[in-house]
Design a protein that fits this description.
Layout lengths: L1 H5 L5 E4 L5 H9 L4 E4 L3 H8 L18 E4 L2 H4 L4 E4 L14 H13 L5 E4 L7 H14 L8 E4 L18 E5 L2 H12 L6 E3 L3 H31 L4 H8 L21 H11 L6 H10 L1 H16 L7 E5 L15 H10 L3 E5 L5 H8 L11 E6 L4 H4 L3 H7 E9 L12 E3 L2
Parallel strand pairs: 1-2, 1-4, 2-3, 4-5, 5-6, 7-8, 9-10, 9-11, 11-12, 12-13
Antiparallel strand pairs: 6-7
Length: 429
Amino acid sequence: MYQDLLDKKKILAVIGLGYVGLPIALEFAKKIKVIGFDINAERIDMMRNKIDPSQELEAADFEGCDIEFTNDLDVLRRANFYIVAVPTPVDEHNVPDLVPVTRASETIGKVIKKGDYVVYESTVYPGCTEEDCVPIIENLSGLKMITDYKIGYSPERINPGDKEHTISTIVKVVSGCCEESLNTIAKVYELVVKAGVHRASSIKVAEAAKIIENTQRDLNIALMNELSIIFDKMNINTYEVLEAAGTKWNFLKFQPGLVGGHCIGVDPYYLTYKSKKLGYNSQVILAGRFINDAMAGYVARKILQNIIQTNGNVKDAKVLVMGATFKENVSDIRNSKVADVVKELQAFSLNVDVTDPYAKSEELKHEYGFELIPEPGTDYDAVLITVPHDAYKKLDDNYFASISKEHAMVADLKGIYRNKITSRKYWSL
């Protein structure tokens, strides 16, 4: 398989061309022949014109790539090595939504041939690849794992907006259903991952490794959020405490904040879901999730409290929310907890305006029911900076004075204006 891919006698296909799949497909396409498959015809047309729908890649990143973009199963059927990179979200009850990954498995079941390889990159709970995906493939194809085709798991480690830690510079965890598949999958990924690969002992180990990477970060951020609530009651600044504690060599430098996106705020639920099915109810992991999910309400209440104390007329009060994406310097709004803050503020009958230099107004309207305003007003009772975009870091005390009333509060969740706001009341997590 490896040599045939290298000689372009066989083709690698990536199923799902979002912020994970497209960079992988293009990286491989610099070395071997690739089919990029996505069910969204509009996105396929954009990529054929060297436009990344996720706005992460430039047109130059498409240059020199041997890749064919398609949503046609007949084209996909020509591939021999399939990589699945579809999203794995949770539903409104925080239950894993496996529809994208099961549909991708159905697609593979319709096109797979004897001797083919399938590697999943989508984040799932340990056991999902072999217990949920493999039966779908085999029911539709009539093929048997190991005997007729090989399967593996290699968790994605794409970090949106990060130009330093890319697919080629991050060690890739790989796994396979047998020794032969592990060696082949490792060699294929070594084509594009300069940092090298780590060979996990089993598919379940690789699945679990991905889950705990983000669960660990979630729990550490939850601790920082809980500390920020405690320190706020003590009238001390959390960031000053963290700065002081950070002088110790082994102190882990996490910060409080809203935990959104499609990794840290989602992945732990996959682990606790599987744990519950096995008869164990997680305590520490879910406690961290509870704290982080509650931060939007906590922030909204702090703003409401200040407005009541200084203005009193809540229905006429105006709040400006700066930042709507799930993290800084990206356009991605999926699972943005800023939307939860906006919803909480509106529930208090406050008038809320939202700005963001990266987000698209139509996407916010479709996903969350609110739009961006072209320019901020000049009479806000509170200004909330939720996402530390680079464009916001250039703003100063005079700017906030120009857009807000004298009694207004500047709520700076990530502490980027600490010791810089003097004309207005300042608060941060």
